[in-house]
Amino acid sequence: MALSQKIQTPSCTYEQPLGLFINNEFVKGVDGKTFEVINPHNEKVFVSVHEATEQDVDRAVAAARKALEGEWKTVTPTARGRMLVRLADLMEQHCDTLAAIEALDNGKSLSMAKADVANSANCIRYYGGWADKIHGKVIDTDHETLTYTRHEPVGVCGQIIPWNFPLLMWAWKVGPAVAAGNAVLIKSAEQTPLSALYMGNLVKAAGFPAGVINVLSGFGRVAGAAISSHMGIDKVAFTGSTAVGRQVLQAAAKSNLKKVTLELGGKSPNIVFNDADIDNAISWVNFGIYFNHGQCCCAGSRILVQEGIYDRFLQRFKERAQQNKVGDPFHPDTFQGPQVSQLQFDRIMSYIDQGKKDGATVEVGGERHGTEGYYIQPTIFSNVNDEMSIVKEEIFGPVCSIQKFKTEEEAIKIANGTNYGLAAAIHTKDLNTSIRVSNELKAGTVWVNSYNMISYQAPFGGFKESGMGRELGEYALNNYTEIKTVRIRLGDAMF
Ligand code: NAI
Ligand code: MG
């Protein structure tokens, strides 16, 4: 199979790389395997890509190690930062192509995909700015010693990303790792390999030495497992399901105790108080669950509404959800495209069926949308209880539940009654309520009178089973630096 292919999307035609990107070259996998890429809008295979197996992970690790101990080590922090900034500029120049790839491969609407590209480029540029601002401290221990710390790169980093934001997750992972002077191999999700490969072209054009950034397409149980158990990888960063997150942590423990960061699932509460601005709240609640077709780790899937406005809120929210335009990602009016795959479609539909069997009321949706493509109607369940799987488990689709509460204490108790702790939101006009409640919520991010407002400057990650460590912001650099203490004896006294 060739190493690239012309692809025609409804908005552009471009040349898609298909090989594994190792050492700044696109290459075939050692085993010569390939796998198919499906367009979720019409369920059709439109291209195949080369597949990485264990031996390709070995090749990428060797390339990264060679870069790390060779040319990359000689590149100054300022020059490193400049390469990242150049990469961000290139992403912006290629925005239309990258967005079309995301829309075609993932099914997200072209307009949302463009926003993803802009956010991804900004994230890479932000970390370019950090590259020459990573430094240690001088610590005044005593008069006879000079003590200082160095923040050194961890080494070879393996990064495993999901399919819901293929390009954005690439940027969140690669940005801080490379800014801190590491070399990486990043494995895209098998459902959405194309934008990561396209980034290979831009990485080369931005001037990174060979082996600093390697991109692998492949399956979790093969290439992903090879990364998390690899003896030559110093750090693994994973975003995806909690079940696989546990496996990654176990594999790291059983192999070389590589450093681990995990960004996992959620079942995030979105709390609306009686005094909320109802128009504002409805708009953010709607965006909180239906953005990216509900395929967000931080999706606001449990909507808690105070009794004084519950009936009015539900009526208006139903109207709002039904107005969301579901359809072709390349249509300019589309808000919600198809789910990413047959598997995800089936999982979500089985949750919907279970909700119905358990006796919850379908207020809106509850069915497939259309007859072709992995489309699902925006769905709202009411009359739910805490034992139902639709309330307890991450659905990762356009499905939410709405519950009524009386008091602030009750809202906090329901909100925290989950093993997850990724995000939460509060809608209220009362400043004191917003501060009091956000202090009580067990969640890595709390939004007030908004939702999904993620910035590359602010940390993001989970309490409880939603993960370990924080991505984004200055905090993410901690994942990618080892701290070395150096103590120099100044006096001539002997021990
Ligand atoms: P997944 O966790 O299986 O896949 C995520 C990534 O992990 C992919 O790159 C995959 O190839 C890799 N992977 C899979 N098994 C692996 C293993 N044994 N070792 C190393 N890497 C492995 O998620 P999947 O099956 O695509 O989606 C299932 C559910 O996971 C979703 O319904 C959703 O609930 C959750 N999820 C959460 C995401 C988040 O952003 N936190 C993103 C994607 C899925
Ligand atoms: Mg796909």
SSE map:
Layout: E1 4-8, E2 13-17, E3 20-22, E4 25-27, E5 34-39, E6 44-50, H1 54-69, H2 71-74, H3 77-93, H4 95-106, H5 110-130, E7 138-139, E8 145-153, E9 156-160, H6 166-179, E10 183-187, H7 194-205, E11 213-216, H8 220-228, E12 235-239, H9 242-254, E13 259-263, E14 269-272, H10 278-290, E15 302-306, H11 310-323, H12 342-357, E16 361-364, E17 379-382, H13 389-392, E18 399-405, H14 408-416, E19 423-427, H15 431-440, E20 445-448, E21 467-468, E22 481-489
Parallel strand pairs: 9-10, 9-12, 10-11, 12-13, 14-15, 14-19, 15-18, 17-18, 19-20
Antiparallel strand pairs: 1-2, 3-4, 5-6, 7-8, 8-22, 13-21, 16-17
Helix pairs in contact: 3-5, 4-5, 5-6, 10-11
This protein binds 1,4-dihydronicotinamide adenine dinucleotide and magnesium ion.
Residues 37-38, 40, 105, 191-192 line the site of magnesium ion.
Descriptive terms for the model:
6-stranded mixed sheet; binds magnesium ion; Aldehyde Dehydrogenase, Chain A, domain 1; binds 1,4-dihydronicotinamide adenine dinucleotide; 495 residues; Aldehyde Dehydrogenase, Chain A, domain 2; globular; 37% helix; 2 domains; 15 helices; 7-stranded mixed sheet; alpha/beta
Quick overview of this protein structure:
The protein has helices at 54-69, 71-74, 77-93, 95-106, 110-130, 166-179, 194-205, 220-228, 242-254, 278-290, 310-323, 342-357, 389-392, 408-416, 431-440, and strands spanning 4-8, 13-17, 20-22, 25-27, 34-39, 44-50, 138-139, 145-153, 156-160, 183-187, 213-216, 235-239, 259-263, 269-272, 302-306, 361-364, 379-382, 399-405, 423-427, 445-448, 467-468, 481-489.
